Amino acid sequence: MNDRRRPFPEPIPRYTANERTNHWLVALSFIAAALSGLALFHPWGFWLTALFGGGQWTRILHPFFGVFMFIVFFLLAFRMWGDNTMDARDREWIRSMRQVVNNREEGVPEVGRFNGGQKLLFWSLIVCMIALLLTGLVMWRPYLAAAFPLGLVRFASLLHAFFALVIICLIIVHIYSGFWVKGAMAAMTRGWVTRGWAYKHHRAWLRDIDERDAR
């Protein structure tokens, strides 16, 4: 029997256990990298070094946090790659962002598994992650920095700080959106959503699921 006829429709799987585990590894490594990076960025944040065993340990651990974050993020990105390609419908959704923010989604284009805003965040994070890795490698003392001119190391430091600020802002928006869209955060903890939630926020994705189940 079709789910729509059931008095209590079955929940719809949104994220697998592997995807959720991968996501939270990225989240934890981001927190570690962000806090240790802020501790090294300016004297006002030096008190954060106490979280990592002092200034010397913070300096040692920060690059390893960053490399680990890069690896687990791209494992997740590889899983999500096919669902994050932008199309005309996503661009129209982005142009209708004001309606979405005001909770007036009538007339807004239907979206697949991820909407245009989520896809824009996905590609922005990829750019930031690559930039942070490359600039971080140039700065990494004592292993790699000595192989580069001092001027390049200093320029890489500026770029690293810039992209770090950008990615922190992006993650703040991501977290806020997760709480603002009721049910989104629960999807990343329990792995499933209700049919009503999917119909309201990702109608084209729900239609694809129904068609696949029918086949």
Mean pLDDT: 90
Count of structural domains: 1
Output the CATH homologous superfamily.
Transmembrane di-heme cytochromes, Chain C
Calculate Rg over CA atoms: 21 Å
How is the main sheet built? 2 strands, antiparallel
How helix-rich are the residues, as a percent range? 55-70%
The name of the CATH architecture is: Up-down Bundle
Can you count the beta strands? 2
Measure the end-to-end span: 13 Å
Strand content: under 5%
Instruction: Classify the oligomer.
Output: single chain
What is the CATH class? Mainly Alpha
Show unreliable segments.
1-8
Helix- and strand-based class? mainly alpha
What does this structure look like?
- The chain has helices at residues 17-41, 55-80, 88-95, 97-101, 116-139, 150-180, 184-190, 195-201, 203-214; strands spanning 12-13, 192-193.
- It has 215 residues and is an all-alpha fold.
- It has one domain (13-214): Fumarate Reductase Cytochrome B subunit.
- It has a two-stranded antiparallel ribbon with strand order 1-2.
- It is elongated, with a radius of gyration of 21 Å.
